[in-house]
């Protein structure tokens, strides 16, 4: 027996529209009605599964992008540069002759502000 070709979502949706038109037009044979309804039910199940898979994939992509955004915003992606910033801070403190508390603007975490 030949295997059925995998339908795309668009093809399944088009076939559902055809079946609906046939059933609504009353031109179809009453004896074939049950077969058409059964086919429509299978197509609906197929479309729902495809939509659920797509929804899951989109949700995963959005979550991955959010995680990346948070990583970039928190500066975790610049760990190599952080060491250089620390060295510059130490040099600035040595040049100014103080330990870093005298008159420098600090953020709420105690780090130096860029102004």
Could you walk me through the main structural features you see in this protein, from its secondary elements to its overall organization?
By secondary structure, the chain is mostly helical. It has a domain at 9-72. 70% of the residues lie in helices and 0% in strands. The protein contains 3 helices and no strands. It has helices spanning 9-25, 30-74, 79-96. The protein starts with 8 loop residues before the first helix and ends in a 19-residue tail after the last helix. The relative contact order is 0.06. The model is unreliable at 79-83 (pLDDT under 50).
* Alpha-carbon Rg, integer: 32 Å
Order of helices and strands: HHH
Give me the secondary-structure category. mainly alpha
Instruction: Tell me how many strands there are.
Output: 0
- General shape: rod-shaped
Low-pLDDT stretches are 79-83
Query: How much of the residues is beta strand, in percent?
Result: under 5%
Mean pLDDT: 75
Count of helix runs = 3
What's the story with the biggest beta sheet?
none
The percent range for helix content is 55-70%
The end-to-end span amounts to: 76 Å
Please, what is the oligomeric state? Answer: single chain
Pick out its properties.
115 residues, rod-shaped, mainly alpha
What would a concise description of this structure say?
The chain is an all-alpha fold and 115 residues long.
What secondary-structure arrangement, pairings included, does this model have?
Blueprint: H1 9-25, H2 30-74, H3 79-96
């Amino acid at each position: 027996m030949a295997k059925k070709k995998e339908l795309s979502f668009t093809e399944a949706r088009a076939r559902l529209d055809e079946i609906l038109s046939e059933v609504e037009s009353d031109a179809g044979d009453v004896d074939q009605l049950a077969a058409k309804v059964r086919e429509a039910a299978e197509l609906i199940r197929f479309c729902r599964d495809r939509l659920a898979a797509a929804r899951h994939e989109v949700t995963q992509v959005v979550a991955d992008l959010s995680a990346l955004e948070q990583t970039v915003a928190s500066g975790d992606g610049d760990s190599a540069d952080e060491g250089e910033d620390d060295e510059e801070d130490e040099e600035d403190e040595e040049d100014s002759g103080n330990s870093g508390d005298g008159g420098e603007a600090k953020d709420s975490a105690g780090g130096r502000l860029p102004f």
